[in-house]
Amino acid sequence: MKKLKEQMLDVEVEHLMKAAGNSETGETYADILRARQLSRTLPFDPRNELSTDAKYIADRIVGTMWTIFIVLPLVVGILVAALYTWK
After folding, report:
1. Whether 2 and 34 share a structural domain
2. Alpha-carbon gap, residue 10 to 31, rounded angstroms
3. Among 9, 43, 46, 68, which has the highest number of CB atoms less than 10 A from its own CB?
4. pLDDT tens digits for 42-72?
5. What would you report as the CA-atom Rg of the chain, rounded to the nearest whole angstrom?
6. 31 with 61, same domain?
7. pTM more than 0.90
8. What domain range is 79 assigned to?
9. Where are the alpha helices (DSSP H) in 1-87?
């Protein structure tokens, strides 16, 4: 899907460059247009920002791991200690 969008943008940029000729201004305008359209299709910079979905998934994973490795051993330890004291 992402490659298809990039290919469509490349075709549009090539069309604009042919229409503007091969002058320096045409290339600059096409590059600016391509950057604008890429920023519309990719609403955030994946190198610097995290999506809300990624933050949600990471929170769920960290919470689950915390439960498995911290809470569960504590509960099991308390139950085992309680069983040994009642014997």
Report:
1. yes
2. 10
3. 9
4. 666 666 677 788 899 999 999 999 999 999 9
5. 28
6. no
7. no
8. 50-87
9. 2-20, 24-41, 52-66, 72-86
Rounded CA-CA distance 13/33 in Å is 8
Tell me, yes or no, whether 65 and 81 share the same domain: yes
**Residue 29, class by beta-carbon neighbours within 10 Å (0-12 exposed, 13-18 middle, 19+ buried)?**
middle
| Residue-level pLDDT at 34 | 75
How far apart (Å, rounded) are the C-alpha atoms in residues 19 and 16? Answer: 5
CA dist 46 → 12, 69, 82 (Å): 24, 31, 50
**63 and 82 share one domain:** yes
Number of structural domains (the chain) is 2
Are 39 and 54 contained in the same domain?
A: no
Which residue, among 49, 39, 5, 2, has the nearest Cα to 31 in the 3D structure?
A: 39
